[in-house]
Known about the structure:
It is found in: Cell membrane; Membrane. The protein is an alpha/beta fold.
Amino acid sequence: MRRLAFLLRPGWLALAVVVIAFTYLCFSVLAPWQLGKNTKTSRENKQIEQALTTDPVPLRTLLPQQDSSAPDAQWRRVTATGHYLADKQLLARLRVAGGEPAFEVLVPFAVDGGPTVLVDRGYVRPEQGLRVPPIPRPPSGTVSITARLRDSEQPVAGKEPFTSDGVRQVYSIDIDQIARLTGVPLAGSYLQLVDNQPGGLGVIGVPHLDAGPFLSYGIQWITFGIAAPILLGYFVYSEIRARRAEKVKPADTGAPQTVDEKLSDRYGRRR
């Protein structure tokens, strides 16, 4: 126990606490965070890949009722016939399209014999900073559209909807929030128009199929979590060895004798 008493010193205790805390964070927070992002990205990439090779299906096969949602069918192409509720149109602000700022134009769409669903018509570019440009109204009357299913987004904390330039604006495509703003019940998934559709604007492209670095980052945090206590153990072992070496003193600590001193000692003893 005396050999390990140095571990109770403040410096070593602080180091041990830091290593334990770091290891805990690696396994409980940092690695799961990156691995979770990898799982989410891989799932979305798989959905996109399937959507690109699958023919469109009627919307009502995936969203049969007003309260329906289809998280497992995100990016799937669907067809629907109905009419736009043009007076309920609003904008999602601070979006990016093609690497540049954009507004996304959102409007409810009442499906014939089906639910009312939010439709993302596409994007428009802001004017003079963040001013809303003139936006053409969607067509009136019955139209048929083809679009991709999308999941509702999470609201942005601390960012409330507001009205500017005579248009209501939101910070995320949160379907529940938009349903409250417009007073129109909406299905749990929304639609993003593909190109050449009635009422379509700038087309929002499909994300690139890139898994990203999340898996390698997750493995790195696991590796750091394993290495940290091993390195602490190595430092403790090195300290113990150094303390043992200090206790072992050499038998002769003087300077080595010269040749004359050795001869004097030898012949002096003989006399």
